[in-house]
Design a protein that fits this description.
By secondary structure, the chain is mainly α. The protein is 71% helix and 0% strand.
Length: 105
Amino acid sequence: MITRSKLVEQLRDYQIRSQQKISALTVFSPKPNLTSRTDVAVAIFWALVFSMLVVSSYVALFFRHFRLSFVILCFGVFLPLRLRISRHALAKKSRERKLLLPLSM
């Protein structure tokens, strides 16, 4: 049975998802939705760390430090993968939380 509270919750989730104005930063966010300025600041920080890793990898290649460049490049690949895993874990946790029944039932 659809209740008013469920409809309100679905509308709120839809509004949060539709407010994705900064979709490029969601790649670097550990949370599925950027809802506050803190989330945006964290995403910007991880984007800067990723760009610094890419630039330092290129600099290491320029100076012919191939092993160092490979290690830095691995960190650069690992960072977005780890953030994506974190986003999926938080999304799964919130989905499971929605499926739980209230204690009164």
